[in-house]
Amino acid sequence: MTTHGGFEPVFCTIVPPHVLDKLAQAEDPALAGPARRTLQRDAFERTQRRLTTVIGATAVAAVAHGKPQRTVHDARHGTDLPGHKVRGEGDKPGKDATVNRAYAGLGATFELFLHAYQRDSIDGNGLPLNATVHYDRDYNNAFWNGEQMVFGDGDGEIFLDFTIPIDVIGHELAHGVTQYTANLTYFGQPGALNESLSDVFGALIKQYTLGQTAAEADWLIGAGLLAPRVTGTALRSMKEPGTAYDDDVLGKDPQPATMDDFVRTGRDNGGVHINSGIPNRAFYLAATALGGHAWERAGQVWYDVLTSGRLTQQAMFTDFATLTVEAARERFGDGEELDAVSKAWEQVGVRTP
């Protein structure tokens, strides 16, 4: 059993730094300018996150257990958070599609965790879900800052509105679930597991909302986010890591699919957005081998591990894989679930007992 010694919220973005770094080097100022400003803003927010961890976060309002408590704010292209309240829980949709998508995405995330895993909001105790939209100008990212969701509108050249893909919303809120459970260190393999778990639950939220089976799902993270000029389909592919984009400006998707191509780097917190492709593919393989709704069996195993208390903050891929094998056996016995999970890790080159 691990003791986490208090939660340590981290600043987590959906667009990896290596993508923005590449854009920042573009010759076209219409592409480079927004990327550079986004990197600068991300650096500032990351520092603010560290300060909040030191001095303490603001108090959380009263909760309504078993029901979502959503609030959407509008930054009006500024950077003060949370901004102006524009929609609260139970309010009717307004004319701003971005606000409505954010509100719906918060609700979809709440619904999956409540109905599939009996988890009351991301902290398990009815935590209110807050989001800010229209953050900054041409801001090419969305992030979870340890307390709330924040969405940029994109620059319209490379990225569109960050509320468009529901899995982006789910991904960032899932960082909150990890924050309140395993609290995985955001560096190296533990950080890649942190990112992968957000991709897993982001994908499951999309599939749950659409009523899709594992076979019907596209297994893409951020489909619909890239502007028409970009040669690519999404930010990441769980089915085929490394194939989400191959663009003259963005470069080629660097994610590996197996341990044979594991990337060793000091950038991106030790490659947390890059090597997450390996556990992502393991989940895809397990889910599609089992078929049906991925949140019911493969997703249940992953959730069991995340919330078990046995996943340490410094867990490596082999640690996580071993725990999924144990969790599959504990919940489902020595059946097809155990076989699917074991074979999935074997296929990506991660050893289990």
Explained architecture:
- The protein is α+β, with helices and mostly antiparallel strands and 353 residues long.
- The chain has helices at 17-24, 29-55, 97-117, 166-180, 188-210, 268-271, 277-290, 298-306, 317-332, 336-347; strands at residues 12-13, 70-74, 84-88, 129-133, 142-144, 149-151, 220-221, 236-237, 246-247, 251-252.
- A six-stranded mixed β-sheet has the order 1-5-6-4-2-3, with helices on one face.
- β5 and β6 (149-151) form a beta hairpin.
- α1 packs antiparallel against α2 and α8 (298-306) packs across α9 (317-332).
- The longest helix has 27 residues, at 29-55.
- It starts with 11 loop residues before the first strand and ends in a 6-residue tail after the last helix.
Keywords, separated by commas or semicolons:
10 strands, 9% strand, six-stranded mixed β-sheet, two-stranded antiparallel sheet, 10 helices, alpha+beta, 353 residues, single chain
Summarize the structure.
The chain is of the alpha+beta class and 353 residues long. It has helices at residues 17-24, 29-55, 97-117, 166-180, 188-210, 268-271, 277-290, 298-306, 317-332, 336-347, and strands at 12-13, 70-74, 84-88, 129-133, 142-144, 149-151, 220-221, 236-237, 246-247, 251-252. β9 and β10 form a beta hairpin.
Q: What would you report as the Rg, rounded to the nearest angstrom? A: 19 Å
Helical residue percent band: 40-55%
Main sheet summary: 6 strands, mixed
Q: What would you call the shape?
A: globular
Total count of strands: 10
- Mean pLDDT equals 93
Distance between the termini: 19 Å
- State the oligomer: single chain
